Amino acid sequence: MIPFDMTLASALGEQVSDLLEPIAAQFRSLNIPAPITHWGHPVMMGIVAVAMGSATALTGWKGRLAEDKEESQKNRSIHSKISKFMAFFMMLGYTGGVLSLVMQQQPILESPHFWTGSMVVALLVLQSLTSFKGFWGTANLRLVHAYIGSSLMVLLVVHAILGIRLGLSI
User: Fold this and answer.
1) Which of 103, 146, 148 is nearest to 125 (CA)?
2) What is 99-145 written as a DSSP string?
3) Which residues, including other chains, have CB under 8 Å from residue 151's CB and lie 6 or more apart?
4) What is the four-CA torsion angle of 147, 153, 154, 155, rounded to 10 degrees?
5) Residue 60 CB neighbours (<10 A)
6) 32 phi-psi bin (left φ>0, alpha ψ -120 to 50, beta other)
7) Rounded CA gap, 148 and 122, in Å?
8) How large is the average pLDDT for residues 69-94?
9) How far are the Cα atoms of 19, 21, 96, 100, 104 from residue 28, in angstroms, in the given order?
10) What pLDDT is recorded for position 160?
11) What pLDDT score does 1 carry?
12) Minimal CA–CA distance to 64: which of 133, 145, 126?
C-alpha cells in the first residue's frame, strides 16, 4: 500500500479551501439555512445516484443482454441519453460537495468521502472514454464499459455510506 501523508493532504486541502473561500463566502452571505447547506448535497446527489444511476445501469445492461435487436437499440439509446445527464449532474455534485464543505469550514481532502467522490469522477471520465462510437467495434471494450459502470454503482453505495457518516460527524 502506498503511504499517504495526511499532513500533505491537510495542507493541500487548506490551499483548495482558500481558493474556494470567496465563492463560499458569497453563498454564505445568502443566509441559506444550515440544514440545507449541510444536507442539500447528499439529498440531491442521492436522488441523482439512485434515480439516474439505477436507470443508467438498468438500461445499459438491458441493452447489452437483450436478444431482440430493436429492444437492445432502444435500451442503448435511453442509456446513452440518461448517462450523459447523470455524468453532468455528478460532476456538478462533486463541485457542490466540495463547496459545501468549504462553506461549513470543514477540511476537504482529509475525508474518505472526498476520495471516493474523486474516484467516482475518475471512473465517470473513464466510462465516457469507453463509450465513444469508435471504440464500440471491440466486444472486449464494451465489456470493460459494462463492468466499469457496475463498479461505479457499487462505489456510489460506498460513497453514500461514507457521506452519511461524514454528515453525521460534523
Assistant:
1) 148
2) HHHHHTT--STT-HHHHHHHHHHHHHHHHHHTTSGGGTT-HHHHHHH
3) 123
4) 100
5) 23
6) beta
7) 11
8) 94
9) 15, 10, 13, 10, 9
10) 95
11) 47
12) 145
Helix axes 54-65, 139-169, angle to 10 degrees: 160
The reported pTM is 0.84
DSSP 170: -
Q: Residue 69: exposed, middle, or buried by beta-carbon count in 10 A (0-12, 13-18, 19+)?
A: exposed
Grid cell in block for residue 124 = 465517470
Q: What is the spatial distance between Cα 91 and Cα 37, in angstroms, rounded to a whole number? A: 18
Give the residue with greater pLDDT, 9 vs 23.
23
